[in-house]
Specification:
Layout (H helix, E strand, L loop, with lengths): L2 E6 L3 H11 L4 E8 L4 H8 L4 E3 L5 H7 L7 H6 L3 E4 L5 H12 L2 E4 L10 E3 L1 H4 L8 E4 L2 H17 L1 E11 L15 E2 L8 H6 L7 E8 L5 E9 L5 H10 L3 E4 L8 H11 L8 E4 L4 E3 L2 E8 L6 H11 L5 H11 L8
Parallel strand pairs: 1-2, 1-4, 2-3, 4-5, 5-7, 6-7, 8-10, 12-13
Antiparallel strand pairs: 8-11, 9-10, 11-15, 13-15, 14-15
Helix pairs in contact: 1-11, 11-12
Bound molecules: NADP nicotinamide-adenine-dinucleotide phosphate.
């Protein structure tokens, strides 16, 4: 029998999680929610999802627009074994009492504070900690990108300390209400940034400090990492660890990957919505100086957390062990298939 998954908030993350859940042989989407009857609501129905109204007072808006909804979000979560809350940042915490009242398990996203859930989650780093839990937070896109590589480096070589610079896309491609046309914004100005402490919600023992900037691009984030390792290792040993991990892809500038624009041009050939669920690391950026490792990675902010949500469902509902869940998720989403 398939577990029944409700998606509360069918936006950038919600629509991708819905499509990923639909690809699993042990899960089904019982419904998705929107607050308003726009083109995304109509597309959800056209794609075969049952649409519910996220804000009960807005039912009339859907009625007036002739967009059929099956009911309210409360009615949806009654039909679900688990809710993936993909509402805008901080709204998940407001939705939590509804999940508590219904006695349904819920996954929150990185726009929520860590105390919304019992644990902050990344499948590679702490799958076991989510097993059987009621409330889990999948960490943000930047944190997921950092945690994946730091977990692998720590497991294989031991990490002494990390200093990282995040160059962040200003908004997602769909945004037309805000943005940054010309300029580079230190974000935050007061340093360090929150990304270091957020990594520590998953990997508490990692000594990490981060700074971040927003730049006028929508495609991907870029991270520049400096990792001090416990032992001296070679560049080849680092490449070997990254090569073996399906959720990482190595690319090279001599293959034509000169910027995130080229990575996205390549990804457009691979997947629906050019989704890159993997960290994309420039192979030729990997450099070891003494015990310090340097490398640069690109993170597709709209896609990177999607497999993590699928794995969090399996962990919380005790459907599979870590390796089995990750294998199923990877296979269903073609993760690991496009290594160069
Ligand atoms: N986008 C990213 O790059 C990214 C990456 C990683 C994590 N996240 C996190 O993922 C979460 C969702 O972000 P997003 O980018 O997907 O946002 P989004 O594109 O704005 O989508 C949010 C969705 O939630 C719906 N919604 C609004 N109010 C709601 C409510 N009260 N209850 C339920 N649903 C409601 C919206 O519906 P309507 O459109 O009908 O109003 C919309 O479909 C945030 O915590 C964010 O920080 C985002």
């Amino acid at each position: 029998m398939k577990v029944r998954v409700a998606i509360n908030g069918y936006g950038t993350i919600g629509k991708r999680v819905a499509d990923a859940v639909s690809r699993q042989d042990d899960m089904e989407v019982v419904g998705v929610t929107k607050t308003k009857p726009d083109f995304e609501a109509k597309m959800a129905i056209k794609k075969g999802y049952r649409l519910y109204c996220a804000i009960p007072e807005n039912l009339k808006l859907f009625e007036d627009a002739g967009v059929d909804v099956e009911g309210t979000v409360e009615e949806l979560i009654e039909k679900a074994d688990i809710v993936v809350d993909c509402s805008p940042g901080k709204v998940g915490a407001k939705n939590k009492p509804m999940y508590e009242k219904a006695g349904v398990k819920a996954i929150f996203q990185g726009g929520e504070k860590k105390d919304v859930a019992e644990i902050s989650f990344n499948a590679l780093a702490n799958y076991e900690k989510a097993v059987g839990k009621r409330y889990v937070r999948v960490v943000s896109c930047n944190t997921t990108g950092l945690v994946r590589v730091l977990y692998l480096l720590d497991e294989n070589f031991g990490v002494e300390k990390v200093r990282a610079v995040m160059i962040r896309r200003v908004v997602d491609p769909k945004e037309d209400k805000k943005g940054l046309v010309n300029g580079i914004t230190p974000d935050p100005v007061k340093l360090p940034s929150h990304h270091g402490p957020d990594v520590q919600t998953v990997l508490p023992h990692i000594n990490i400090t981060t700074v971040a900037f927003k730049v006028p691009t929508t495609l991907m984030h870029v991270h520049s990492l400096n990792v001090q390792l416990k032992d001296k290792v070679s560049e080849e040993e680092v490449i070997d660890v990254f090569e073996k991990e399906p959720r990482i892809i190595l690319v090279s500038s001599d293959e034509g990957f000169t910027s995130t624009a080229k990575i996205v041009e390549w990804a457009r050939e691979l997947r629906l919505r050019y989704d890159l669920f993997e960290n994309v690391i420039w192979r030729d950026s990997i450099a070891v100086v003494g015990k310090e490792l340097y490398f640069t990675q690109a993170i597709h902010q709209e896609a990177i957390v999607v497999p993590e949500n699928v794995d969090a469902i399996r962990a919380m509902l005790e459907m599979a062990e870590k390796d089995e869940s990750i294998r199923k998720t990877n296979e269903s989403l073609d993760i690991g298939k496009f290594k160069l």
